[in-house]
Design goal:
Elements: H1 3-31, H2 40-52, H3 80-93, H4 101-122, H5 130-138, H6 141-146, H7 153-168, H8 175-178, H9 181-195, H10 206-222, H11 226-260, H12 265-272, H13 296-301, H14 305-314, E1 316-317, E2 322-323, H15 326-350, H16 356-382, H17 396-404, H18 415-440
Antiparallel strand pairs: 1-2
Amino acid sequence: MSCSRTRLFIRLGKVLAVALVLVLATGIAARTRYGAHPDERVHVGGFNYFEQHWWPPDYGSDEVVYSGYGWSRVYTGELVYLIYGKLGHIIQWLGHSEEQSYLAYRMINVVLLGLTLTALFTARPGVIKPSVVGLTLLCVPQVLYVYTYANSDAWGITLSLLLFIMAANMMDQPLAVSFSWRRAVLFGAIAGLLMASKTPYILALVLPLLLLGSRGVQDWRAGSAESQWSSFGKRVLVSALLALTIAAPLRIIYPLTQSRAGHSVEAMREAQAIEGYRPSSPTYPTYRMAAKGVAYRQMLGRQQWMELTAGSFYGCFRNMNVRSPFWLYALVAAGAGITVVWNMVGGWRFWKNYPLALKCGLVASPFILAANVWGSMIHSLHVDFQPQGRYLFASLVPVTFLLAGDMHFIASKSPVWRFRLFLFIVMFALAVYDLLLLVLLNPALR
């Protein structure tokens, strides 16, 4: 097959894969029962509040929907609830039923999935290829599932990937040239929105900043002109100030106003939480386990935290009680293991030829993933035992580097490339099978 035909085949395959995923996501969003997905009613309650408001209420307000923990999503400092709330209000104004507002929020996430995959697959390939991350997303049904119902995780995933795309596109030129005023403003805006998204996704800032830092070191070694660095510094400052300006109102100013007014999160939880989750009597077995004397060793051993987290990272649906079959987990684990080993072998053989940005990504990725896992473990032990893989979605790009870092470097049509293509097709087919059988056609979710 000629190079032009190979490129056409790959492009057509990507289009068909994205189209199939969007059809599947739309079907799940339209056909599954409201509230059949994790915390959907609480998320919709947060969106609904901001349909008519621009600022969160005081802690303990009767205007909001509380979870069993005595907590509401309007207090999380996530700007997505305001953005989605206003979009939902517009959709209702256009004639959509208010009683089925959850459908509007589901469809917003489905559209967001389409835009995210399009951005990844149409991004300009260079030293770092964002399309490789797109291929990874298509092979992880849990990520695709998050985009089929109302929640705030989908927004965080998209922002983290957009920031990575921006950083990847600036790896092929000196930063003084590639980090233009337009890109500085856009990078700052996306970073600010990410800082004001669900807390775990703030970790996704690290890798793009490290990539930009590696490019800066490369430019400094090449002896870039001092005048260029002066102008570049001004753009960095503006970008950072813009990010802080976007994130500060909900992340800093609002909590300070509540503290000065004497409002307490613990007092709110005491008043609003259900029995077993109140701070004064945390009797539910998996709530605040550290205070009950449970150690990390017990959580990892007897309670199988790591196994449950890994399983839900790939595929665990409904309210975390519909799991993929064991044979599917085994196949996926084998495929992932093969790709990681192959990636390590490639790194060992061709490390000297790898660009600095790729080396930076490969070295930093395991540490970022480890930090993400550690943070999730702390939450499970000290707050609530929730071994949910979605808490690790801030590390989707690092996971891609670990699974397919060498894909940024190897030539197309090589034996390694052909094998990886075959493996992707198998993994994508398994992901589609998982979503089709366990979600779309599952009677328990209708």
